[in-house]
């Protein structure tokens, strides 16, 4: 059996640290796991009036989440919460009421920011949303990373061996978590 994981990244920036982190994380997964980044940059702003006739972008987003065995959120922190683009995507795929794509999908939450507390506040806000959306979410280890020069090596891998091992441990736990929920 193979497992497809949807990655949702909370930054649209070309040189995003979180995009780089998502790519590095995907390489730590086992061979029976594939990781696909879900596109959210072309979603319209959520408007409940559109629930009955969702745009093609929203249908695509919900299809990708529905098809996934789990979801990893990789997000920066904006003003002590998650960026609006991520909240917009979460709201879109949660509707219409009773037809949320998120329900039951095992979630992982990680993030990197330039601040010392490495997205901790954003992640706490996100975890509140995921609980409401009925997504079982890996509790430990928490992954709060601070972006510094040289965090990624030239190949895009995590340069520091301790951090790499820590993230490998996180991935191993997330993989087991997804498998446990797939049963
Ligand atoms: C609108 C805005 C708000 C921000 N607020 C925070 C914050 O609350 N905490 C923090 O650690 N960094 C904050 N930052 C800095 C981000 O951590 C930094 O821009 C980071 O590189 C964003 O992630 P990315 O590289 O994946 O785009 C903020 C940046 C922006 C643009």
What labels describe this entry?
single chain, 183 residues, alpha/beta, five-stranded parallel β-sheet, binds flavin mononucleotide
Kindly report how far apart the N and C termini lie.
12 Å
- Counted beta strands: 5
Arithmetic mean of pLDDT? 97
State the strand order across the main sheet. Answer: 2-1-3-4-5
Q: Strand-residue fraction? A: 15-25%
Could you give a short account of the major beta sheet?
5 strands, parallel
Short summary of the structure?
Helices cover 37% and strands 15% of the residues. The chain is an alpha/beta fold and 183 residues long.
List the helices and strands and how they pair.
Blueprint lengths: L2 E7 L7 H10 L6 E5 L18 H12 L2 E5 L9 H10 L13 E7 L6 H13 L10 E4 L14 H22 L1
Parallel strand pairs: 1-2, 1-3, 3-4, 4-5
The structure holds flavin mononucleotide (FMN).
Question: Explain this structure to me?
Answer:
The protein is globular, with a radius of gyration of 16 Å. The mean pLDDT is 97. The protein is 37% helix and 15% strand. The termini are close together. It has helices spanning 17-26, 56-67, 84-93, 120-132, 161-182, and strands at 3-9, 33-37, 70-74, 107-113, 143-146. Flavin mononucleotide (FMN) binds next to helix 1.
